[in-house]
Each structure stands twice: as structure tokens, then as C-alpha cells.
Design brief:
Layout lengths: L20 H18 L9 E2 L10 E6 L5 E5 L2 E7 L8 H16 L14 E8 L5 E7 L5 H18 L3 E6 L11 E6 L4 E5 L2 E5 L9 H15 L6 E5 L5 H6 L5 E6 L2 H13 L5 E4 L14 E4 L8 H10 L3 E6 L2 H11 L3 E9 L9 E8 L2
Parallel strand pairs: 1-16, 6-7, 11-12, 11-14, 12-13, 14-15
Antiparallel strand pairs: 2-3, 2-5, 3-4, 5-6, 7-8, 9-10, 15-17, 16-17
Length: about 375
């Protein structure tokens, strides 16, 4: 069967590109409802909002640089092998352009490549982000320079990269550990402002190198609108956004609530969230803390937004929610299996008022699930 991916046999980035899109949507609904059935939940999702774009929708791609100088995505099921000269049809076209430039540069920069088995070498990742406003961020993740000569060579090479690729901003991200991750613990802004800006649903958002942001900007507006709809009337109410990231949801709702608070464990994200609140002229009390460690139970939140990572909520965070029993919860899940597991407990105290799937990840098995929970009388 024809697929949009040129190398579906080795690349695992999409997985479902061989399935017609309407069948993908049907399968996602079936998988969600199957998870509910396994957990013996009396729930069923009938509605799924299709993605407005099914190709070139991703605004971030993390390209691996391997020990031989290959630059691209990892092979399916083989973390140590990289598919050279292969980006992804899911990536924004701006990312494709920068990927080609970054790949050519890496091969000719005269810098060493990182060996993930021996933990030696310099170049590790090229992380490329874009926005619908035409802004781009290129972040090169490296090891710590071994000496002054390597640092000087890197600076000279980065100057050439900026001339070749011309991103809105170029960032040097240093990973001082042997952890194989596409973010560093030291950021050096080499060219441009060090961040890019996105506009979604009439709101402005600043995106810095290490901060999470919705990877599908054209679909994110449907997610934003759904959360606002499911939150209900916020007049004279306190809104708490747990796992708030850069404030994507809270900012779009702050003017409707009496008080809005956000909690997020990533310091860079909270820094961005505060700047985003200023950009949009809203007042939000943001806290840099783990959700499970932050004492929010005395706030008296009326509406709580839960948008945990793919692994789901920490057990203590779930216990805190049940102990506080806010009158309404809007649960945003990118892992319906974990949501089903947590609903076994939440369902003892809450009724489901609305539930809706939003396809933010075409050609993959992933999907966003948004549920409005109201406290049982």
C-alpha cells in the first residue's frame, strides 16, 4: 500500500501513514473506547475532531547526529542507528529547509560527532522549531568542549551555520552529562533573540529552547477552544492549571476567571509563562514546582485543568485532586490508557459531562482526549 513516508520500513516517526486518514480517526476512537472497556468504565467517545492539516503540521523535530556524522531520525526500534538524509513529511516545510542546511553543515564543520556508546565526541542533536509566523529556531546540542581550541572551533563553525541556515535565532545548547537527551543544561544564544513567537487563537506565546509547546499549532486552537468550553462559566471562580507549561490554556482563560494560577516543574517554561502573561495583558500567579509537591489544596480552586505528561499523573497528585475535590475538572490526556486507569478512581467522585477526542497527531496512534468532570452531588 502506498505511504506518504519514503522509508516506512525503517522509520518509526509516523507508523500509521499507510492507513487512510478517515480510518485512522475511526481506529483512534475504537482504541480509546477499547481502553475504557478494559477498565470496565461506562464511557464512550463518539466525537473526534480531525486535524486541519495532516501533513507538515509538526513545529518541532529533534534530529540525531550519530558517531559517523549521519543526521536524521532514529531507525524504528534501534536507538543506536540514524537514518541519514531523512527528515519527515510530518514536519513543517520550514523545518525541512533548515534540516538540509544543518545536515550539510554538520558533515563539513570539522567538529567531532558524539559516540553514544563510548560517550565521547561533540555534536549530538540539531533541534529545529518553527512557528506559523515564519519564525524558526535552530538549537545545536553538544557535549562540553574538551578544551579552548574545540570551543573556538565550535564558535567559528556556528558562525558559518548561521550564515548558511539563517534561522530567526541560533542557540548553542551544552549537555554537560552523558544522558542522551536533546536538551542541554546550559544555553548560549548565539544569534537572534533566543526565542520565537507563536500566535494561536488570538493569543501570543513565546517559545524558548527547552520549553514545551503544542507541537501542532494548527490543531492547537481546537484544543484551546475545547478546554475553554469544558471549563464552563468562570465568573467569580478560581482557575488552577496544573502542568501548565508555558501557560497555553491559562492565558486564554485568565480574563474570564476571578483568579488564575499555574503550576509547572520546568523553570524555563514558567519563565516563558510569565512573559506570555505579560504579552497578553493577563494576570496569572505561576509557580515553579512539581504538581505532586506543590501545596495547592488550600487555594480553593473551583476549576482545575489537568494536562499531565504521557506517563499520566503522579499517584500523590491524583490523591491530592481527590482530597481537594474541586467542583469541576478539565482533564487533557495525550495517553488515553493512563486516563482510563485514573478514571477508575476519579469516577468514584466525578461524573463525565463532556468527552471529546482531538486528533493532534495524524499518521500516528496518538490522540488528545479532553474530558469535563463534574463533582457528584
Amino acid at each position: 500500500m502506498q505511504t506518504l513516508c519514503p522509508k516506512p520500513d525503517v522509520c518509526g516517526s509516523c507508523g500509521w501513514s499507510h492507513i487512510p486518514y478517515q480510518k485512522q480517526l475511526q481506529q483512534k476512537l475504537s482504541d480509546i473506547n477499547g481502553s475504557f472497556k478494559i477498565k470496565k468504565l461506562d464511557l464512550r467517545v463518539e466525537e473526534i475532531i480531525p486535524a486541519p492539516k495532516t501533513e507538515h503540521y509538526r513545529n518541532r523535530m529533534d534530529f540525531v547526529i550519530d558517531w559517523q556524522g549521519a543526521v536524521g531520525l532514529r531507525e524504528k526500534g534501534k536507538w543506536w542507528r540514524v537514518i541519514d538524509d531523512h527528515s519527515c513529511f510530518l514536519a513543517d516545510e520550514q523545518i525541512d529547509t533548515l534540516y538540509t542546511a544543518a545536515r550539510d553543515w554538520a558533515k563539513n564543520a570539522g567538529l567531532s560527532f558524539y559516540d553514544r556508546k563510548a560517550n565521547i565526541g561533540f555534536l549530538r542533536y540539531a533541534v529545529i522549531r518553527s512557528t506559523t509566523l515564519g519564525q524558526t529556531m535552530l538549537t545545536i546540542v553538544t557535549s562540553t568542549p574538551k578544551d579552548a581550541d574545540e570551543e573556538a572551533a565550535a564558535k567559528l563553525a556556528f558562525e558559518k551555520l548561521n550564515d548558511l541556515a539563517g534561522p530567526t535565532t541560533l542557540v548553542w545548547s551544552l549537555n554537560h552529562t552523558i544522558s542522551d537527551v536533546s536538551i542541554g543544561d546550559e544555553l548560549r544564544v548565539l544569534y537572534g533573540p533566543g526565542a520565537i513567537e507563536e500566535h494561536i487563537g488570538g493569543y501570543k506565546y513565546r517559545i524558548s529552547p527547552n520549553a514545551f509547546f503544542q507541537t501542532n499549532p494548527t490543531g492547537a486552537v481546537y484544543l484551546q477552544d475545547t478546554i475553554r468550553e469544558f471549563a464552563g462559566d468562570l465568573t467569580d471562580k478560581t482557575l488552577l492549571d496544573l502542568y501548565c507549561g508555558t501557560g497555553f490554556f491559562a492565558i486564554s482563560m485568565a480574563n474570564d476567571a476571578k483568579q488564575t494560577l499555574g503550576v509547572e516543574l520546568v523553570p524555563e517554561a514558567i519563565k516563558d509563562a510569565r512573559l506570555n502573561a505579560e504579552l497578553n495583558g493577563v494576570t496569572i500567579d505561576f509557580h515553579d514546582a512539581k504538581t505532586e509537591d506543590y501545596n495547592w489544596m488550600e487555594i480553593g480552586a473551583d476549576v482545575v485543568i489537568l494536562d499531565p505528561p504521557r506517563a499520566g499523573m503522579h499517584d500523590k497528585a491524583l490523591r491530592d485532586v481527590i482530597a481537594a475535590l474541586p467542583s469541576r475538572i478539565v482533564y487533557v490526556s495525550c495517553n488515553y490508557k493512563n486516563f482510563a486507569r485514573e478514571m477508575v478512581e476519579l469516577g468514584k467522585y466525578y461524573d463525565v459531562e463532556h468527552i471529546r477526542a482531538i486528533d493532534m497527531f495524524p499518521h500516528t496512534p496518538h490522540v488528545e482526549l479532553v474530558t469535563a468532570l463534574v463533582k457528584k452531588v
